[in-house]
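Thread: Modeling a multi-component assembly for a lab meeting

Hi all, long-time lurker, first post. My supervisor asked me to bring a structural picture of a complex we are working on to next week's group meeting, and I have zero experience with this. I have the sequence lines for every component (690 residues in total). Could someone generate the structure of the whole assembly? Inputs are pasted exactly as I received them:
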Amino acid sequence: MLRSPRTLLSVGSAALLVAGLAACGGGTTKDSASTSGGGAPAAASADPNAPLKDGLKIAFLPKQLNNPYSDVEVGGGKVAVGELKGEYKLVGPNDASASSQVSYINTLIQQQQNVIVVAANDPNAVCPSLNQARAAKIKVISFDSDASKDCRDAFINQATTEGIGQSLAKMALDQAGSNGGEIAVLSATPNATNQNSWIAVMKTELAKPEYAKLKLVKVAYGNDDDQKSFQEAQGLLQSYPNLKVIVSPTTVGIAAASRYISSSSYKGKVAVTGLGLPNQMREYIKNGTVTKFALWNPADIGYLAAFAGAAMASGQISGAEGEKFKAGKLGEYTIGKDGEIVLGPPTEFTKANIDQFDF
Amino acid sequence: MSDFWKRRLTSWDTIILAITVVVLVIASVTVDNFGTSRNFTFMVLDLLPIILIALPMTMIIVTGEIDLSVASTLGLTSSIMGWLWNQGLSIESIIPLCILVGAICGVLNGFLITGLGLPSLAVTIGTLALFRGLAFVVLGDGAVADFPFNYTGWVTGTIGGGAVPNVLILIVALALVFGIVQHATPFGRSLYAIGANAQAAHFSGIRVARTKFWLYVVSGAIAGLVGVLWTLRYSSARADNGAGLELAVVAAVLLGGVSIFGGKGSLPGVLAGVVLLTALQNALRLEDVSGQALNIVTGSLLVLSVLLPNITTAVRGNWQRRKLRQASTAR
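Re: Modeling a multi-component assembly
Sure thing. I ran the full set together rather than chain by chain. Output:
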């Protein structure tokens, strides 16, 4: 087939063309390119005494539906929207992927929502559509998992990133035993903004002298899928049989890892800790697989996000540092650097206090 | 009504075109915010990957083969694009290189299917896994996101800020090229011959193997181009981009009336099928129909699309036989 001179000619010229274009060089490269564009509309002036508007359409777009943690979060948001006398809407993909979120953002723009509250699956992939939403006068509040800061108006952080990372490292140290040893992390999706920032803080903590006994051998990704997380937990124990602690900064991961450990021969020898929902983890705390884990009330995040969105849509705040607003039963909040609003410190759960919580 | 018109009007292509137009009209009238220029842009962006990949896919299915590796080629191209970008290459060099990568993937498919004579279903399922795996080897789990704004903006933007998306020009141009080749050239006619009976086609002088080979190369190259466009649209190069897209493309092609057994089907029908699927999904999502219900609707449409042409052919066959019997008894 290649023997025909005509084919050879066409293939050859195509190859030359490509080589020529490639050798051209001097085009737009990573260093020369400008990536910012169509970005933040200029911050409007804020009037803290503006009344909260009624009937605001507030839509929630968590990382994915069918996730118990997201369900609690948006549940809190629904309560808040009820108190605000607004219209609540919940949409989301079934898989925690960024491109699916983009279609939903587009739909919400078309439906002319007033506020979009989003937990980004990838901080950058959702950026172009979020900026389109902001250009259409929709306020964008990110919660739980941040989007890139030039495409959202404010970010509700559950606790300070530093606080969560330090708490994870400390719990690992406490449960590794007096001789320390190997620890591993079982995270969510590889691009998740929140998990990645907490793991980064953890690694900085682990480099400190008081953590010298601990060695982080691997960060595995369970994609917030129960079955995959279960398999990754199995994989970790197979590759590192001397593992002392599995730290899982995601409620799906910690539940799957605990389920695996509690039904295996590693129960009692390998500790599982991280961020978990009390209702999911109750049986593992009671049967001794897990001694301590932490979280905050996810419902409060959704609640705070709804109030922040309403305050912004009513013109009370604009996302600038130092502005204050009232968030219903949670009280007054001040906006921090880069539009970040921190909910509060994490709570640690143990056998002693787990029965006090129902979420 | 003459026989010619009866045949034309009851052919599946016309039916699908009519259904598409009806759905578009009803949606514009009843669904809030459907008939706006911004929604039009969203819809065009949503159907961009499906319609472009459906163009060579129609030709491949008409010849009786299939190519399920297109989405993985898209992913591999996206990964390589991200990797090359991180290495510092200029975007002007990366884009043609990525299309070439897609073409190479097509060469592999073509060689295995026509050179070694392996069944296309098995081969492309294998390369589906192979290319996706290679994509993960190249870029791992991460993503590359800092593509230049003038390129990403072009893909998501419109002409002069108006109502016509920039990518629509690309879609129309490629659809015209493929449409003309398929329906107005000897090469296009040979596809139907191959699909109807590959042996007979071979004996009448059509180079079956060579035709199929080049179809796969073109399919790969287009998948590569779509990989570039996808990456620029979401400004995110990831190894898992486009996962599952091949099923949406095959569904749209079948909905457009192309027979899965080969030898029958037309490009306008496929274009109508893609528009119908995308418009329906868009409209239902605007009406807050859940993702699961959307899947049910799409799946039922697909089953209908395979069932109905068979029923209409059977009905028409019956009707023709009755006419023949009447004609013979009338003598």
